[in-house]
Specification:
9 strands; alpha/beta; Rossmann fold
Length: 290
């Protein structure tokens, strides 16, 4: 007899779990616990080992479930990925999702990141792609995604980071989860380290800043892809006084510091930034690779 259609034709696949990682929460709570700072410009995460930790944690809790993938959510100015974002996206089994960042006062806030997490959590649950969701985050705005995933039979495990002096997850989100796992300093410290401060070696000839910028711009372009390059081009034309988004500019200065030194003069920064734009937006490279 032919199988009956509709719901009865569906066959459950091997149980799978996925991770939903709010990078802003990971940096702030993890950096505060392991390094005593929430300042992302002072924090470096080993993405390869930390994503491996997440996968192993899920497998340890349920050996019968397979790790589908980890979704990594972060903000980016005008949606333009930084070199760090490109590094994350290249990790095996990791899917990068980018919201936006906007200036607020002296700092930067994320926009649209929580909605991306909720959307993916609901879609994967409704499509029966996962049986368990591991949610690393703390915002109350994530609660609705948890509720809707549970309504179709998915277990949601809320993963938090041990608070250092203050609560870092919404109480309503904690109550809604099927289970809560707290990662402590022992688990996370091997994956966090302070960003190194560089000074040029004594007697080492300094390369021209514009040459360094071109090299780093080409490297960024290779990892970012055509859409991100076009967004950078549009950003430069719309904001000529700040042609490089703040996050990318900060990363550019850090990556150049081993070559140019940590205390880079303003005139050298200008040359470095111009070189970066030349390397990132050069049409000759596009034609050569086409």
């Amino acid at each position: 007899m032919a199988p009956i259609g509709g719901l009865f034709s569906w066959r459950p696949q091997m149980p799978q779990f996925a991770w939903f990682v709010d990078a802003g929460y990971l940096y702030a709570a993890g950096g505060n616990l392991c390094l005593g700072t929430r300042d992302r410009t002072k924090i470096e995460i080993d993405f390869g080992t930390v994503t491996k930790l997440f996968g192993e944690l899920g497998t340890h809790r349920a050996a019968s479930e397979r790790h589908l993938r980890s979704y990594w959510y972060d903000g980016a100015r005008d949606g333009i990925p930084t070199q760090t974002h490109n590094t994350i996206a290249r990790q095996p089994g990791v899917k990068l999702r980018l919201g936006r960042t906007v200036p607020r006062g002296a700092g930067i806030v994320q926009k649209g990141v929580d909605s991306l997490i909720v959307r993916d959590l609901i879609r994967l649950s409704q499509n029966r792609a996962i049986s368990t969701a591991y949610l690393l985050g703390g915002d109350e705005d994530l609660r609705q995604g948890v509720v809707e995933a549970q309504e179709v039979g998915v277990r949601v495990v809320l993963v938090g980071i041990e608070p250092f002096g203050e609560q870092n997850q919404a109480a309503t989100l904690v109550r809604e989860a099927d289970d809560v796992v707290i990662l402590g300093k022992k688990e996370l410290s091997p994956h966090f380290r302070p960003l190194a401060v560089h000074q040029p070696l004594a007697g080492q000839p300094q390369r021209p800043a514009i040459e360094v910028g071109v090299e780093l711009g080409r490297e960024w372009k290779t990892g970012a892809g055509a859409e991100a390059v076009e967004r950078l081009r549009q950003h430069r034309s719309q904001q000529p006084n700040q042609p490089i988004p703040r996050e990318i500019d900060g990363e550019l200065l850090h990556r150049a510091s081993p070559i140019l030194g940590n205390d880079i003069p303003q005139t050298v920064k200008i040359a470095l930034r111009q070189g970066f734009l030349d390397g990132a937006l050069s049409p000759e490279d596009d034609e050569a690779s086409g």
